[in-house]
Amino acid sequence: ECVPVADSVDCALKMQQGDADFGVFTAEEALLASDFIDKSVRVVADIRHVERFTDPYAFQAVAVVKSTYGGTLSSLKGSNFCHPGFAPGGLWTDSVLKHFERFVVSTPCEKSLSVVEQEIKALSGFFKSACRPGPWVQDDMFDNRLKMNYSNLCELCDSPKTCSYASHESGSHRAALTCLTHRGGDIAYVALRYVRQYFGLESGFPAMANMNEFKILCPDGSTEPLDNPSPCAWVQQPWSGVLARRDIANSLQPLLLSWLVNQPIDPLPAWQEALWNLMIEPDHAINSVTSLLSNFVRQGGETRQACSGSVKWCTVEKTEKQKCEWLKAAVQTHGIQPSIDCVEAT
């Protein structure tokens, strides 16, 4: 039986209340739900791309520096930064895209500026130059003004005027690595799989630069060689997961794996084919996982909170307070600042 829901929050609540047994959640949806239904559910499977089925994560974000780098994170001040860019609807949320810079760069408080401009100004003062392509904000006029006032954050781009890489208007991981290796960059924040492809560490990809001239920078300031099979990552994003009610998770898991067999025998029964189409994206397959939700949604270390603190939201009843708490968690999940504080009226 299919239970109609409005969104992932509604699905999570229905599972908590016993009105639904299981559902598929993206990493962000699972992270959001973990604050509220962690004890009510278990992760019984994840859904991975068939070509990367052995990869434990959907992606890992790493920082790559030149091999001559030998300082601390604070010594990155005055360096040249290459970023993959912001693209609406992209795989990386703002929380991931800004994780490195929020960890490394502290934001001084200037109450006369918006939160986003405080961040941009701090980045502009910390890095000598950068390519940070794509829309920084959704308002075009404000975005253009920010890029005009803090133009050094576009200097390393192929087109500083439009703040874009030549290969893609909103940037790309491969272009960010080219920015590092051929355009004067000192550090690039990119997905690990593109690092392996770019430096010829993955079969079928020719090396575009000498891997011995670069290394991985860790959050603690240490470095590791590029060919480390499990290098330190700044963010580790899990695959989409199948969450099931805790009381039926053990019995449901083997059933799901048998229903969603990765090499189905044609033709499948109509109900089984419908379940497959609902749960499994093209070129993906199910993988058995047994985990607490809170362990499944690890995303990396804490980032610094914006100096503007939080916005206080007054609520007048329990239901309204609960809705506010969900919104607060969603804001944190997507990297939106300032945060929200839910204050219950007395």
UniProtKB/TrEMBL annotation:
Pfam families: Transferrin. SUPFAM superfamilies: Periplasmic binding protein-like II (SSF53850). Residues 1-346 form the Transferrin-like domain. InterPro entries: Transferrin-like_dom. GO terms for biological process: iron ion transport. It comes from the Eukaryota. GO terms for cellular component: early endosome; extracellular space; plasma membrane; recycling endosome. This is Transferrin-like domain-containing protein. It comes from Cuerna arida.
